[in-house]
Specification:
There is one protein chain. The protein has nine helices and no strands. It is an all-alpha fold. The protein starts with a helix and ends with a helix.
Length: about 190
Amino acid sequence: LTNVVWESAMHARVFRAKGYEHAMRQLRVHSTVVAQVSRDLAPTAGVDPETAFLAGLLHDVGFAAGLLVVAEMPKDERPSLDALWPALAQVHERVAGIVTRLWGLPEEICEAACLHHHVPDFILDPLRTIMIVAEEVAWEADASLCIGPWAEGFDRSPGDVVEAACAALQLDDARLTRARKRAAATKEELGNA
């Protein structure tokens, strides 16, 4: 029930910023796909599925927070998304940590959102390991944060990190196939909503 409330709140307000609707929609789809796949992968790492879902939903909330702040600026002063997005990429993990702590979320959710969720020190943190794989699966399902022509590979873990995360989770082809199907189905549901 808590996760349903969080997802509804995120979709109702957090993923809405005047002037940046396309980016927010893409962020909403990406975050929801990562959340669903994270929930499905959680048992392989001994992580609570609902914790994994919430971490996946909020892992890029720093982008949403930044867009919400800028959307409050007068329309003629707002930077273009092309100008804004690289700056958000540099600070989104720190901002996510601030936002999740202000919301009083459990520390493991805050850490998953803010502690470099694309770097290879994940072996000691199963939740980040799950999110690395879930983000890659979201990319494969065309539910990425690739906004703008310059953003190829943007907000994505390197291939060797993804491979090591799959190995750490002991994911076989069957589990990865199920995760990919879940990602595609979630993206399709959101596209039809």
